Amino acid sequence: MKKYFWKYFLSVFAIALIVLLIQTAVPLYEYGVGQQKWQTSAYNDFVDSVEKAVSDESFTDFSPEALIEKLSILKDERIAGIILMNIGGQVVGSEGKTNDGGALPVFQGGEGQSNDEGRPEDGQRPEGEGGGFGQREDKEPEPIGTPTKVKLATRIDISTASDGSRVITRTVIGAVDFVLPKDMGMQQPFGKVIISLEGEDSYFIDLLTHTPRTYAYSKDIINSFFRGLYFSIPACLIIAVLAAWYFSKRNTKYIDGVRKALNDLAKGKANVSLPKERNSELNEITIAIGELDKDLQANQKSRRAWLHSISHDLNTPTTAMKMIIDGLNDGVFPADESTFKELQKENDTLSERIEKVIEFSSLQADTELEIDTVNTQLFTEEVFANFKDRDSVVTEVQCDSISCDSMLMGRAVNELLKNAVEANGGASEPVKWVIKEDGDFYEMDIFNNGHIPSAIDTDIFEPWARGDWSRTSGGSGLGLPIASTIIVLHKGTITICQDGEDKVKATLKWPK
């Protein structure tokens, strides 16, 4: 019981957990993609604004103060803060805050210097800051901070053409390594702009962008969504645990009831108690077990009937033979030809019934069919070759050939014809045998005079289930069951029904 409970519990909980993880991961992933696009758009718009601003030849003052003043005008609401650093990585100016509202680092003067010392003169590039990005040949102190990498970097080179006009060259660099100032903490810039004067890098502009969660016009909505998501996760986990416990307990109880019912059936008990279940799918199992119970009861009843009938049918000729032999021994019957003929007749009857029992049993095994295309005329001749009442049957052939196991199908037809001739009762109108095609099926119809009594057994194709309709004529009671078994092997059907007031119709139908 406990094993099944935990098995179902873990299964249901795992499914609920997977669904919950997917429902959580998808919006988080989509938010991450959207945030990346949002910040990239803010960065690109800012770079466009910087490029446009420095393209204006009236702007000639490239001192840190002038640049910071200009950049503060260019930044829009999506930009949280701007940090201006010299080529040595020292902060020379800043504007705004971090996107979580923290303060930005201020100008880092040298030791013993005021904030004004060490800054380049207005309109001049800081002395000793030559070389490319990340290289220095002067004696300025190394910047203090955390080595990191920024994914987006753009260089804007400002140079003077031979005619005195200003030339702006914009180059997308991609990811670059840099040192994050120690005052920044964990706040990493989203992108970097490198300002080059006459081909030499002069300033680094680190750009801190807002995210949808820190942007003034969207943060309340986004944060509300995430709060709801964070609160829903434990709530969903609790619901998943309770649901898993409920369904596991219910299903375990149902399985235990089904197991008990099947064990009772295996022990031969009837009318077993079945668990009730409101679930339609599980209720199908309950219905199927109930049908199995009925089938097993019917089989037990049929088995008892078989034993009774076979003992009766085999005992009748055996008793007759014993009476004749005892009569011969006692001198009651003369030892003449008529007595021995009667003895031979009873022996033949016994042998025939034993042969049919053996034949029916062999058909219940895994019989393999030998399907061939058979000429219809030849097939009818083969059937009549082993049929003693040939003159009592007329044939009507409506197709040239049929596909079947000719030997077994002939045996089935022989039994049906024999049954029809006996039921015809010597009527002037003979039995009619029709062979035809019906779409994707072959069909044989056998008609005889008479009617089917209302008291006939409901399943006349069960062994020895002959009823009053055929008991009066004797026989083994296995003719129709043999025919039924053969047509089932052909994946077909057999029916016997009333055709009008005075005709009985037996039909064999099987696929081509």
Q: Which properties best describe this structure?
A:
Heat Shock Protein 90, Helix Hairpins, alpha+beta, 3 domains, five-stranded mixed sheet, six-stranded mixed sheet
Characterization of the model:
The protein has about 500 residues and is of the alpha+beta class. The chain has three domains: about 1-105 and about 140-255, no CATH class; about 280-365, Helix Hairpins (Orthogonal Bundle); about 370-510, Histidine kinase-like ATPase, C-terminal domain (Heat Shock Protein 90). The chain contains nine helices and 15 strands. The protein has helices at about 1-55, 65-75, 220-265, 280-330, 335-365, 375-385, 405-425, 465-470, 480-490; strands at about 80-85, 90-95, 145-150, 150-160, 165-170, 175-180, 190-195, 200-210, 370-375, 395, 400-405, 430-440, 440-450, 495-500, 505-510. The strands form four sheets. A six-stranded mixed β-sheet has the order 2-1-8-7-4-5, with helices on one face. A hairpin with a 2-residue loop joins strand 12 (about 430-440) and strand 13. It is elongated and about 150 Å long.
Spans where pLDDT lies below 50 across 5 or more residues: 110-141, 466-474
* Order of neighbouring strands in the sheet with most strands: 2-1-8-7-4-5
Overall average pLDDT: 80
Strand-and-helix sequence, N→C? HHEEEEEEEEHHHEHEEHEEHHEE
Largest sheet: 6 strands, mixed
Which value, in Å, is the CA radius of gyration?
A: 50 Å
Q: Please count the helical segments.
A: 9
